[in-house]
Batch of 2 targets.
Target 1
Amino acid sequence: MSSVLPCRIVTVITFRGDRSRAFTDAYDRAMEDDRKHGRGAPSIETCLLYAGHTGVSIDRGKTVYGFNPDPPRNRPISGVMDDLAAGLAFPGVVRDDTAIFDAATKHGLNVHAFDVLFPDARFAVFEQTLKDEIKGSRYTYGFPDGNGDCNCTTWLERIGLPLLTGRMKEFTSLSEITQYPSRRFGECT
Amino acid sequence: MASSTIAQFEDMLGRLAMQYRRTADRATRKNVAQQYSDVVDKLILSGAWQESPPPEDQLPYADMPAAYFRYWRQ
């Protein structure tokens, strides 16, 4: 009789954005309209299809939650993107982004997924952490090396989801990892 | 230009964007923006730049090189 307890599954889902010339042009034009005329801004879906996104599911992909910035309602999207690029942070919000991942698939993007297996007790802790985050995130959203705590990908680490297997080859094959001698998460005052 | 070189230049844009965000000093940011512009010029000259950088690898609009937007316009 096996002494190994059955595992529960957390699924990580991610896609790389569409930054082809056609989509980039459409995105840039929409941003320009928003910036110059205050109208025609790209939708959140368009922004995420351009940028790429990462989410997490605890029901085998039926519902996918993602971490997003929650800027003031009166801040135009072009301003939000400028603020993020300048290193500013916004409160983070966890949303049901299932439709975004469906849209990415329909758009023809490769949507990747992998499972993280947890024993029951650890899954319960993760599930509660995720539920707490859905109610109100403890983290701020920011671009790498900005003032925010994390973005959609590094948020997974914040909520206790290990992303690496531990194989040294996997870790040392992350060729870019040593090109950043340090990394910042959060405002240093 | 080899695709590996394109990838290196693209990665350089991301590193410069991080450097930009790490400082609030305007002179340093201007200097980083100039370096960013130089890399964009190299990518454009390659004739093989096929994917625009993700938002986190870009600078704020005011400091993005004009050549970038001309290049990506269809």
Target 2
Amino acid sequence: MAVAIGAHPSEVVFTASGTEADNLAIKGLAWAGAERGRRHVVTTNVEHPAVLESVAWLARHGFEVDLVPVRADGIVDPEAVAAAVRDDTAVVSVMVANNEVGAVNDLAAIADLIADREVPLHTDAVQAFATLDVRVGGIAALALSGHKFGAPQGVGVAFVRRGVPVDALVHGGGQERGLRSGTYATAQIAAFGAAVESAVADRVRLRDQARAQTDRLATRLLALDAVHRSGPADPAQRLASHLHLQVDGVDTEALTFALDHAGLAASGGAACGAGAVKASHVVEALDVRADAVLRLSVGWTTTDDDVDRAADVLVDAISRLRAGRPVVA
Amino acid sequence: MKVLAAMSGGVDSAVAAALLVEEGHDVTGVHLKLSDVPLDEQVPGQGCCTLDDASDARRAAQVLDIPFYVWDLSDRFLSEVQDPFAAAYADGITPNPCVTCNERVKYSALLDRARLLGFDALATGHHARLRTRGDASALLRATDLHKDQSYVLYMATSAQLAQTLLPVGELTKDGVRAHAAGLGLRVANKPESFDVCFIPSGDTAGYLAQHVDARSGEIVEVDGTVVGEHDGIWNFTVGQRRGLGLGSHERRFVVDVDATTNRVVVGPRQALACQWIEVDGFIWRGAGDPAGTPVRLQIRAHGSTVAARVTQIAAGLRVTVDEPIYGAARGQAAVLYDERDEVCLGGGRIIAAERPALPVAVTGAR
């Protein structure tokens, strides 16, 4: 794990999830900062809930928070992040790539711009690691989740740079440099290690394949009327694995129902606890006005046949719903 | 038949879905997220649309081995049911949110979507029965008269009823619970909810206080004598006896809630008596002309019925009763049944009620 991101092994803390890794870094860095009088946090308005809710919790406990809005393509302007940093900023958190639209941020530029501010930069790299060569240069803390690249659910990693003060969330026997006490989940960690190894070895191939597959899917769908792709125009600024679409003339719930009925798992947003799909904060932040949004992604098990089948199902479902033809066979 | 079964998380709708599966239909379950009650205000087992209800519905669908979806109609519910609920009280009107929800959400948004997707019918767990002949469907009271919910379905059109299934209406409530227990559904003994679903605490006054501006005013007798003060007319509904805060030793009922004068009028029970009401949004599923058809009138969800007849007047429709009814509140549903008190023929929303001349001089107040 450490080799894969250019870290030292002692800087890798195994957690139960990417969410826990985000919590550890953000709260831990914030608390440690507060001990030096820093009670301000900077992040973006399209972060994963693991980040946004941690920050919201900090706000309820006396921290000031600045949510830097992203551009309409989902990327945050590095200058805007730097401009939000103050002398009392305890932590800056910007995701490598957005988990819904796949917009990839320029972390290196952000790190450069705030290098002289002595503010730790945290990044949620959960969505990016499978297809991007994520490195920790200039970064103080980073979160990963194993299930995104082949490990079983229930294991994540927090990279925490040595020398950067971080308070622990979980206290006890002092495992993981005292940052996360508790007996190691050795089976999960071993699986995580194996998954990292194969994910890194397979990364370039997967990225090229995913790019070809999402392009193929996009070509089929963008040929329909009133279907648009969200996110950056430049493919280099998009995750290869992600395709985020805006579809007019259909309802998100009806569309996802139709797709599910035809055997295609797709999401129109983030599911709440009850299982309903809410318009996501990312879609709202990007000011998307389409009747429906669809976030599609491919992974290392996706075949070209799967993609063609998905395109057939999508084109058929959208056409049927728009024409008022039944989708329940 | 391809049936979309609305599953609230309660025992009735779970058994409705189960009965349809047993009859061999192709059933898909859907749970509606209607009210966006914050998690920390949710009371498990009370109200609707809590996380517990959603997972109860999901578990029932798993036991029945049917596909299950959760659809978020909370925006629609807010604009069509919750906001009008508060607005009505502010206007001195007593709304029935279940009727509004059935009319504006279940029989419009949900049924429309079910049809759009290609389902043949929508099933719910309401206790009422349907008799379909050709294209026409008649709505009948439930087998279990104590649980009958035909009142809150009165507004369904014949065409809507023709695409509706109400499987539990043929069973008693005990029968429903026994059926659920037999299938191993854990909702078999789930307690019933009675309150307004989006106010799980049951504190309607508290809810209204948050949504309607408080404006104090006078409480007056029917003769205009000021007998007290209120801190918002929305705390009062016609027919109400408790919570008036009057020192009077005589029993007093709310007779009228007048938003234009911001007054609550109270009086003795006979001041509530009326011989006719006027309705709007009239729905009629009877065979002939409503005028001239002898009917029975029900003016509250679990009330009794009285013989009545419908007449056309300039302002709309009037329902006249032979013996006086008490406590007809504007906004409540006036539901009409056949002479045998079994078939629900339709009804409307009460927009006016006669107030009899009282044996006291009425001055000031109307």
